[in-house]
Amino acid sequence: MDFSCVYFTISAIFPSMFFLSSLPLRFHAFFRSRLLTPAPFGNTLIVSFTCPSEGERKKRGLFDMKKRVGILTSGGDCPGLNATIRGVAKALYARFGENVEIVGILNGYHGLITGEYKEMCEDDFRGILTLGGTILGTKRTPFKLMRVVEEDKIDKVAAMKKTYKDAKLDCLLCLGGNGTHKTANLLSQEGLNIIGLPKTIDNDIYGTDVTFGFHTAVDIATEVIDRIHTTAGSHSRVMCIEIMGNKAGWLTLYSGIAGGADIILLPEQPYDIDRVCDAVERRARKGSNFSIIAVAEGAINTEEAKMKRKEWMAKRAEAGYGVTATNRIAAAVQKKTGMETRVCIPGHMQRGGSPSAYDRVLATEFGSYAAKLVEVERYGVTVAMVNNRVVANRLEDIAGKARNIPEGCELLTVARRMGVSLG
Questions:
Q1: Who has greater pLDDT, 311 or 127?
Q2: N or C: which end of the chain has fewer CB within 10 A?
Q3: What are phi and psi of 223, to 5 degrees?
Q4: What's the pLDDT at 55?
Q5: Among candidates 114, 107, 116, 102, which has minimal Cα distance to 172?
Q6: Is 149 left (phi over 0), alpha (psi -120 to 50) or beta?
Q7: Chain-centre distance for alpha carbon 175
Q8: Which of 87-96, 183-192, 218-227, 297-306 has the lowest mean pLDDT?
C-alpha cells in the first residue's frame, strides 16, 4: 500500500532540538500503533499522522462513499466560529462534491440532546468568513451535568446518541473550548465518531499553541487599553481594566504587553496588593500622572491562593465587591495611594465582531484539516497547532486538561524585563 507519513519530534524544554524527518516505509507499521500527541509544555514527544495517499484513497473508493457530517458549536461564542464552519464545509464540498451532506446541530450540545438539527447546503456557508458569532447558535451545557438526570428526566448521553443515529451521521465535529472537548471525548468513548476543533478567547486548550478567537480578542482588548491610556493621562487616574480569562491569563498577558499596561495581574500569578500599590507610587515618583492595571477576571491575591475556590468566592460576596477582584483592587489602590481610580470592564465586547485576518486564516486551516480527518476517517481526535504545523491530538489525551501560563513562559520574562509589575 502507498502511504504518506511524516513524523516529528518536539522538545518544549530545548526548542532548538526540534527537527522534522520523513521515515522509510518499512518503519510505518512500527510507529502507526505508537501515536503520541504533542503538548506545548512537557517532555519530548513523537507526533505522527499516517493516512493513505490520495491514490490509495481513490482505489478504496473513499471519494465515492456518501458522507453525512454533523457540526455543532458549543460554549461561549467567539470570532472565528463561522470561519471554521466555512473552512470545514468548503473543503468537504471540494473533496466530495455531491457525496457529502452537512447537518447543522443547533445550539450546541443542547440541540444534540433535544434533537434540533437541520440539513444544510453550500449556500448556507457563503458570506460567513467575516461574520462574528455562530450561524448554528450555541448554549452552555456543563459537562458535569451530562450524566446527571435532572427534573426533565432526560438521559442526556442517551439522547445525544439517539440524535446522532436519527440524523444518520457518519461523524460529528464539535467546535468549542475545554468543556466542549470533555463532552466530545465522552461521546467518543460512547462509540460516536467525533472530531474536535479548539475554540476559545482564553487560549487555554491543552495540546495546541493557539485557539481560534484568541488573536481577535487580543486585538480588541489591546484597543481598549490603548483608548484608556488617553483618558487616564488626561484625568491623572489609575485605570483598572478587567480582561476576560477566568482560569488562564493568556489574553490579559498578551493584550497587557501589546497595550503597554504598567501592571498585569494574572490567575497564575497571585498578587500582593501592597506590591501593586508600590508599583503605582513608583511611577508617580518618576513623574507619571497615571497608571494602567490590566486585571484578568480570574486574578486572585496571595491570601486567596491559600484557600479553596468556594471559600474565597464566599469572602468576596461577603465584602460586596462582586465575583472578580477588579473593583476591590481599584478601591485598595485609591485608598493606599490617594490616586483617583476607575474600573473599565469591556466584557463581552472581547467575544464579539468579525474575526481578525489571523483568525480567519487559522480557522480556515483548522477547518480544512478537520475535513481531511473526515476524509480519511480518523476520529476521536481534535485539531491543534504545534510549532506552526496543524496536527491532530487524541481527545482522551487533552480532555479535562488546561493550558495555563507556566512560570517559565517567555512573555512573563519579557514583561519583567520591561519593568511591568506582575503584582
A1: 127
A2: N
A3: -65, -40
A4: 56
A5: 102
A6: beta
A7: 10
A8: 297-306
Instruction: Please give the C-alpha separations between residue 305 and each of 55, 123, 300, 311, 407, in angstroms, as whole numbers.
Output: 57, 51, 6, 10, 16
Per-residue pLDDT, 38: 43
What's the pLDDT band for 64 if we cut at 50, 70, 90? low
- Identify residue 197 by its one-letter amino acid code: L
Question: Is 50 exceeded by the pLDDT of residue 22?
Answer: no
Q: Could you give the CA distance from residue 84 to residue 133 in angstroms, rounded to a whole number?
A: 11
DSSP state of 355: P
Report the pLDDT value the prediction gives residue 213, as an integer from 0 to 100: 96
Pairs from 145-152 (Cβ < 8 Å, separation ≥ 24): 146/109, 146/183, 146/186
The pTM for the full model equals 0.83
Q: 303 pLDDT exceeds 80?
A: yes
Helix, strand, coil percent content, the chain, rounded in steps of 5: 40, 20, 35
Within 236-324, residue ranges assigned H as helices are 250-258, 273-285, 309-319
Question: Which residues does 93 contact at the CB level (< 8 Å), separation at least 6?
Answer: 100, 122
Write down the catalytic residue from 64, 123, 155, 202.
202
Is 202 known to be catalytic? Answer: yes
